[in-house]
Amino acid sequence: MKNIFDPAPTEEILTRIDQLQPDAEPSWGKMSVAQMLAHCSAFQDIATGDSVSPRSWLGIVVGRLAKPVFYNDKPLPRDMSTIPTLIITDPQAFDTEKAILRQKLKKLQSIGPDQQPLHPHPFFGKLSAEEWGKGIYKHLDHHLRQFGV
Length: 149
Description:
53% of the residues lie in helices and 0% in strands.
């Protein structure tokens, strides 16, 4: 499984982000491409602790058992629910959101897994740096495939 803390997968993701077009239509879901970029940025903020989302009761009960879904080799399912605080419904500026996500990924890469202040996932709970790195890559890959890149 690819890990966002490794340089090659991060470069791959950055290249794919650069291939996005502001008028791209999703293969599934309701978000625009700019909303998706904002959603992915907000997800990085949860990992780094720049944003806090409370644990759901369902996550507390079954999150620990389900967490391999977040970092295993299988793609995320198209209809997987999302963290409520990460649902982006307001219009977003494509170029701005693209630049913000790129900057956040470069920051994750520069700090690295050992110095990263990783915080619990709102559903899956405590994750190691390796689990977060794989999960962040998998989440980004999911949404980039959603928009055909």
